[in-house]
Amino acid sequence: MIALVTGANGFLGRALVKRLLADGAADEVRCLVRTESTGASLQEHVGGAGLAPASLLVGSLDDAAFLDRALDDVGVLFHLAASARGAPADIFHSTVVGSQRLLDAMRRLDVLPRTVLVSSLGVYGTAQQPRDTVIDEATPVEPQPPRRDPYSYAKIRQEELFVQFAREQGLGLTVVRPGVLLGPGGNPLPGRLGIRVPGLFLLLGGGTRLPFTFVDNCAEALRLAGSLSQTSGQTYNVVDDELPTCREYLRLFERHVRHVRSITVPYFLTLAMSHAIQWYHGYSRGQLPAFLTPYRVAALWKGWRFSNDRLKGLGWRPRVPMADALRLTFEAERLGLRAG
């Protein structure tokens, strides 16, 4: 069987490729990368683990002929390609338009591959949920996507494309919604903690739980989703156990990595600040970007719990416990600071 991974050189993509190669269930792990240099970087990453080399395909999701070659004889497709940063138009193009190009190519296939779509916990309508609600797969998807951040908006639209295609074409689709990825090489101060202003970090999460998943734990969840027949037509959230609060995580980061000049902003003040920013955005006719709105504050920092019960029903457990995941992340960050 051939496994195809889009976005193979991303943070999660690398971990997934390494996991698939180690598992040995696929005869070939075919990796889509954008440039020769990213392909070489990926090969070095997985080759350093003593694993068999992956098959690299360099090209773009905008290239129909390239996608036809990439999809040839594929048994399982892992679609990770997306963009989390940059201009909203770029995020939308990489995540949504690229996905549409991929689905167009899949329409030309005689046999559709099993497909695992990597989405995000950001698709849920958490702004409408009361504090302490358990966020699980039954939580409604965001009802007002334009009011969220560009990445969440794009992931919601991406899911809609795949679900509609699966319904029309009979695609065996599994949707996996990871939380915040944690691990060496990732962002050690993720956006769910708060926001940076010049010379200061505003800790907005406070007692809100961070829905972390260690990158290797998430890769194992994807492998399971692509290998078990009962996952077809299902959705799975991926979060680890023993999730720290934003406040706890920042304290641990400062203890083990470096001091962060920060101020803790309580939820009610964060909400008031967002109202002021939104008002001034309108008053100044966009002179100040509306980077923080009351809706986004309610969607990120009201405070919930997160369930991984459905994923555990497949036999998944975090291969790396949270204490070890934090240690490995902090050690890598310290080494990076010394090297810099």
Structure at a glance:
This protein has 340 residues and is an alpha/beta fold.
Describe it for me?
The chain is α/β, with parallel strands linked by helices and 340 residues long. The chain has a domain at 2-183 and 212-240 and 304-320: NAD(P)-binding Rossmann-like Domain (Rossmann fold), CATH 3.40.50.720. The protein is 42% helix and 17% strand. The protein has eleven helices and 14 strands. The protein has helices at 11-23, 36-47, 64-71, 88-106, 150-169, 215-227, 246-256, 267-283, 294-301, 309-312, 322-339; strands at 2-6, 28-33, 55-58, 74-79, 114-118, 134-135, 173-178, 180-182, 194-197, 200-203, 212-214, 235-238, 262-264, 305-306. Strand 9 (194-197) and strand 10 (200-203) form a beta hairpin.
List keywords for this structure.
340 residues; seven-stranded parallel sheet; 11 helices; alpha/beta; single chain; 17% strand; Rossmann fold; three-stranded mixed sheet
CATH fold-level topology of the domain at 2-183 and 212-240 and 304-320: Rossmann fold
- Radius of gyration, whole Å: 20 Å
Write the element-wise H/E pattern from the N-terminal end onward: EHEHEHEHEEHEEEEEHEHEHHEHH
Can you count the beta strands? 14
Structural class: alpha/beta
Strand content: 15-25%
* Secondary-structure arrangement, i.e. CATH architecture of the domain at 2-183 and 212-240 and 304-320: 3-Layer(aba) Sandwich
Shape descriptor: globular
| CATH class wording of the domain at 2-183 and 212-240 and 304-320 | Alpha Beta
What is the arithmetic mean of pLDDT?
A: 92
Amino- and carboxy-terminal Cα gap: 43 Å
Point out poorly predicted stretches: none
Main sheet record: 7 strands, parallel
The neighbouring-strand order within the major sheet is: 3-2-1-4-5-7-12
Give the fraction of residues assigned to helices. 40-55%
CATH superfamily of the domain at 2-183 and 212-240 and 304-320: NAD(P)-binding Rossmann-like Domain
Q: State the helix count.
A: 11
